[in-house]
């Protein structure tokens, strides 16, 4: 992993003083009062190279301005039934905090279907959660725990993962690309739990393709991962699918436990916050329906290589095991 020197930080700071005012304004929304930490994140994402880090950050700032990302938390997804359907098919939520104060995000990879709305809605929802994390959750955690907190932990539940999930690779690649190019170094560790055999096959393919910086953050835990996760967080912060080892589908009946549900306090607070921000900016008139169309940055080489390789290798796996299913007909557009 690259070592970020003070000289590189100083050079980066000087270069950022030269950017136009609109970019400076959106940069303030990114750094939330901690500009140096933000510059370090972008430097780490580009191996300490100031020139490459500057280009990455400027591209990010332009993307934010062009797509009005600063205002995305004032654009509710309506009607509420549509937003509920998105929450039920894009499984993500805040289950608690680690002992160090890092937010713990649970993600139901295997049971997310992404089939209740257009790609634009899922991308909008994902960015809104990112922005709420960075503008509300992390600053609140910093205040509560008395130290600067800028990263989170993510726990991926692979319960229900099937080869047919290959049909979601394009959307997942879009989301991953947005995160890598615009929200770098925001996750300290990725924990993988409840992994079926098909994940093992996928991981063998993907792991060598990942950058070392990413690969070292991934921990594949045995079973539901409860014992390992309890080393970094209390039981009350464990995602429900780690508490009893039965997977995310077994806990949907308990809304307080199921952090994926719109009825969970995290999502209630997030949705209320977005509607309040809309009311501040648009005090008169109904909320307009329709998704926010965000330009997707050109996929990073790493993401596209992974997607193409995964498609090819899993199709081989499909045929070698005598399976004739959705993969036979699947065609992924990599444009």
TrEMBL record:
Origin superkingdom: Eukaryota
UniProt-listed Gene3D superfamilies: CRAL-TRIO lipid binding domain
One Pfam family named in its UniProt record: CRAL_TRIO
CRAL-TRIO domain span: 79-240
Species classification: Eukaryota, Viridiplantae, Streptophyta, Embryophyta, Tracheophyta
Record protein name field: Phosphatidylinositol/phosphatidylcholine transfer protein
Alphabetized InterPro entries for the sequence: CRAL-TRIO_dom, CRAL-TRIO_dom_sf, CRAL/TRIO_N_dom, CRAL/TRIO_N_dom_sf
